[in-house]
Each structure stands twice: as C-alpha cells, then as structure tokens.
Task: structure prediction
Amino acid sequence: MSTSSTETTVPAASTAAPPEDPSLIGLLRTTDHKRIGRMFMVTAMFFGLLGVVLDLVVRTELTNETDRVLLGVGSFGQMFALSHEMLVLLFGVPFFLGAAIYLIPLQVGAGNCVFPRGAAGAFWTWSLSSLILLGAYAGDGGPYGANGDSVDLYVVALGAVLVSLLWAAVIVATTAFTLRSPGLFLDSVPPFTWASMVTAVILVVSLPVMIANLLFSYVDLRYGEIYLQGAGGLWAQLDWLYRAPQIFLFAVPALGVVAEVLPSLAHRHIRHRRMLNAAIGSFALFGFGAWAQVNITQGEQLTDGASGLLLVLFLAGALVTVLAVLGLTVGVGSTARPSALLSPSGLAALGVALLAMVGSAVAFLGALLDWIESNGWLDISPDAPLRLTTWNYSVFAAFAYGTLVLGAMAAVMWWTPKVWGREVRSVPGRMAAIGTTLGVLTMIVGAALSGILTGQPDFTFSDPDFTDVYGSLLQGNGADIYSAVVLVGLLVVAFSVVMAGLGLFQGLAVRERPGPNPWNAVSPEWELPSPPPPGVPAELPELNSGTPILDEESDTKALEVSA
Amino acid sequence: MDPELALETGPLKTGPRTQVTATALAIGGFAMVIAGLLGFYVSRRNLVASPGSNWVPDEVTIPNAQLVMAMLTALMSSLTAQWSVWASRRNYQAHTYVGLVVTFLLGAAYLNMLMFSLNTMNIVIGQGEWQNLAFTATGYLIALIIGSFIYLGLMAFRSLGGDLGPDGSAPLESAVLFWHFTVIAYAAIIYVVYIVK
Result:
C-alpha cells in the first residue's frame, strides 16, 4: 500500500460516525467529502441567486434603447461581465463540482474523495477569491473598470477562482479514476459520475487557457497597456468562456443528472450504456471552446472561412450528441409512470433535456446562418453577424439558466433526501421546474428574435464610444420590446428560483424523514442510509455495477423463476 | 462484519496510483497554460509583425549557446531523476539518493543558466509587445521550474524516511513526472520564444 494514499484513507476501525462540529472551526477542519460537497453547493447557490439578480438589472437596462435606466455606461459593462461570471464560475461549475465531491465517492463505493484536505482547500480558496472578485468590482475594477488597481485585483482574483476550480476538478476526476470499487469498471459507473468525470477532465484542459489569457492581460495592464489598451479590452479576452461551444461543457453534469433521474424514475436500465457514455463524452469534447477566442483566431469573428466552418461543425457535432444523450435517457424515462415523471425532479430533468436540445439547436443555427451569410449566399440578419447580437444571449440563457440553474434544481430535488435527509416540497418544486423551463424558453425566443430581426448587439451599452451609435442603430426597430420579452422570461425564472428555495426550506423544516430510497432509485448511493453518517463508513460496499439495486432485483427474479 | 475484515476495507479501496493520476491531470492543466501562452505568442506575431520588420527589438541579444546548454543540462537532469525512480522502485536506497542529489545539482545549474541568460538579454518589460509576451511566458516557465524543485524536494524528503519499493515510490514518481514535464516545457517555450522567435 502506498503511503501516498494515506491521506485519502482512514482506517476503517476508527470510523464510527463522529458528529459534525457545527462551529466555524469544524467547517475549517472538515475533511469529510459530504460536508465539503455541501459547502460548495450551498455557497454556489447563494452566488447563483446573486447572479440572477444582477442579470435582472442588466436586462432591465436593455429594455430602453438609449437612456440608462439603472446603470451608467461603465457600470453596465461591469455588471454584464459580473452577471456572466457569477452564473458560470461562481455558481454553475462549483455547484456541480460540489455535487460530484459529495456523490462520486458514494456512487463508486469509496469512503472519501482523494485528497480531502485538498478538496477543502479548493473550497476555501474558491470562496475567498470569489469574495475578493466581488470586492474588486466594488472598487470599480473588472472589465470596463476605471480603477487600475482594482482591475489588477480582479485579474488576480479571477485567476484564483479558476485555479481553485481546477484543483477541485482534478480531485473529482482522480476520485472517479482511482477510488472505484475493484469490480466497478469505468464504463459502468452511474451516469452522474461519468458526466462529472468527463467534465472535470475537459475543464482541466480548457480553463488553463483562460489562465493564460489572464497572465497576458495582467502583464499588459501592469506594464504599458500595449495590447489590451486598458480594461475595456479585457472582456474580449474572457468572453469565450460564456459562449458556444465552451458553454456546452458546463452543461454536461446536468445531462448526467438527467441520465440519472429519468431512468431511475422508470426503474429501468439504460440500454446501450456505452453509447450513452460516448455521447456524453463527445458532447463534452465539442464543448472544448478554448480555440474559439480572439487571441487564437487573430481577431476573426468565426463567421467565415475555415474557422467559421469549424465552429459550425463543432456546434453540429454538439447538437447530434446531445440528441443522442437525450434520446437514450428520455427514451427510457418515457416508460415511467406519469406521476413519477410529474414529480419535481422528473419535471426539472425533462426541462433540462428540452432546453439543452433547444440551446444546442439555436447555437448551431446561428453559426450556420452566419457562415452562409458571410459567404454571400443569403442576406438574413441586419448588419452584424448573429454571433455578436443578442442571439448569443439566447444560447447563454439556454445553458446558464436552462441547464445550470434548472439542472441544479433537478439535482437538489433528486438528492435532497440523500444530502439532507428530507424532500423538497412537491408543489413549489413543480412550480419551480415548470416556471424555469417556460421562463428560459421565453428568454431564448425574445433574445433570438431581437438578434435576427433588429441586430441588437449583445453589448448595447458596454462601450462608451459606441453607445450613441448603437442607440441610433436601434432607434424604433423594436429591440426594446424584445428586450422586455427577455426580461419577462427572466422574471419568471427568478420567481421560480425563489419557489425552489421555498420548497427546499419548507422540506428541510419538516420533521419526518423519508426512507433511505424514497424514489426507488437504482444508483449505489441509494443503498446507503439517507443522509449517510458523517465520516468514513466502517464498511464499504463491494460494487460491480452502477445499478446494484436493479441487478439485485433481477437476480432475485431469476432465482424465483428457476425455483 | 468481522472487525479484522473491516480493517482491510479502507486500504483496498484506495488506488495506489492516486498521486500519479492527480499529478498527470495537473500536468495536463499546466501544459494547456503553455499551449495558450505559445498560441497567443504565435498569433500576435503573425498579426503584428510585418515581413522585414523587427518583431524582436534590436537591443535584445539572445544568448543561444547558453540557452541550448541549459536545455541539455535539463535533459540530463531528467535522466538522473528517472534513475532515482528506477532505483526507488527496486529499493536501492543509495542509488535513489545519489540520483536525487545529482538531479538537484543539474536542476540548479540549468535554472542558473536560464536566469543568467535572461539577465544578459536586455529585456525591458513594458517597452513593446514582444517584451511583454516573452516576459509572461518565461516568467511562467520559471515559476514552473521552481514549483518542480519544491515538489521534488518534498517527495525526496519523504523518501528519506525509507518510503521506497514498488508501491512506496509513487510519490517520487509523481514528482519526477512533473520534473520531466518542466523540462519539456522549457524546451517548448525557449524554442518558440527565443529560437524561432
């Protein structure tokens, strides 16, 4: 036995479920993957709520063509950037990494994640650097910030956020690779473990490119401002993270949740499991978007030539693979009882499936239309390529809200009995799932129509020099009405998020606990008590399948038949 | 459950290659930073430098001989590092420690040569795009090399406690894997930024 792994292993004899120390010292000292995962998820949910509020402010601003309703010119750009960062880097990615840190050891039969102190370190680094990031914005930093020191602080804080997320991603992937039960092969791990592992690996090779962006930006901002020409040029270095195809990658764990929930509701095996793994893996690969950025493409807008065609092919590949994932999972899920499908987690999973499909289709269609138009074969949209209009926001909305927010809701509704030993209340849960789906669909329609019919830039008020030009461009063409449609959709989403929170708090307040497996689910974690006791269990399950509950039932039936 | 069996359960569940796997993944991340840095460098050079113009300023003198010599020294340090892993796997303590000491000496030599070369180049940060790009890439490389010194130093210190053999050498293997990576990183960055320019 390697001593290198002693950190990850606690002798089984000393693991009699100690109570969790609720104090701050207890939080700081914890090395229990369950507690670290919960801390990640809860903190990320808090940041996510803040991100929705910030996006509400931005979208309200866009309902007026020229006048600033709430923000000044520079503040709009900062708020625009911060809302994107909060929804993706401070909410979506850390939430699902936290869920993976909580669930993967339970799903692969391990006692803890690898490097549990490292996982705790990743959480504290991420949360602290996230707060510093917010502080940098408060000091007039960030993209379009006017205070040079705060802009520098922003770059450093964003780098620290990325490093801590990468650290957590390495832990997630290594746990899935090395801590599986001896009989559990990689191709038969539960879908959420597979999706999280694939996402972690692609994160490890794509987020560092953003760190390279930040390194260059920091040196340039500190010494000479030769390349970026000030903080105004910073966002162009960073926005590829929030665009297709990179935004697809963040949705992969949500697809894992769909693949976990729907077949479990039907209480059936996923047929063609390896095909599902390949489809999820391919979707993640098509979500590698580090190449689709201004530095690599030398300023080209990815609408024409070979780079434009490459983007079209990437997005076509993503669409095909997401259809394959959803075909395999929704196909099995459709055999579930209607009452099961209409449960909060069932509705949320179906919503994620629908919105991932719509978002991929919209992204592909936009790139295809841009490419066709740039070749002069058709004149479709006014002036700007769709990629630079609010069409881009429709894709962002589909993935940030449709897969990250709704996917997180589905995960919380499904695993609340496992994580907290309670159930989300069904009425607010259902309302949240349906409301988010409808709200995001409204946002997609409003933003896409505005992009293709009015050419409304994604950045209407972000650049002070062009604000007036944009304003005159949009005068009287109805962009403000479409922006209002988007705002209405976002308000519905915000209301649904509040309902989801309400359902969760109401559920947590109920005294009676559901059984260990209230959904009759099939993954290994449901064989354990809900919630599992703190610390490393004295006895670890011997797994040879990602669906041990179904396998046992099949064996029992086979025995009965033979008897 | 039988308590004796329970004692066995924990260790069996932990993969012996955990640290090597995590290091390999981390190396993937560090390598992608280098890919990004060099991608930006080449991209900006193609965009900014017109044919016949001086992309690298005239006042910058690049000591090719020292940089190539440093690269050869780095390659030798990689060989001696691998020697220490080979010996560690076979529990040859003396060979392991001698290999590590020679590796550190060669590493210090090539880091020293790199720093000397940089000091003689007259690169003034903030005076031009090439200077800023070169400073960023080289600064990242130096940070990586120092990081690999610390990692190998810690794991070597750990192996002094007798942590050797087929399983016990995994920490040292991880650190040496990272050491090899920094040597490749050195070759890639020096080749693109200072030799091809």
User: Anything to note?
Assistant: The longest helix of chain B spans residues 129-160. Residues 19-196 of chain B form a domain with the Four Helix Bundle (Hemerythrin (Met), subunit A) fold (CATH 1.20.120.80). Chain B has a mean pLDDT of 87. The radius of gyration of chain B is 21 Å.
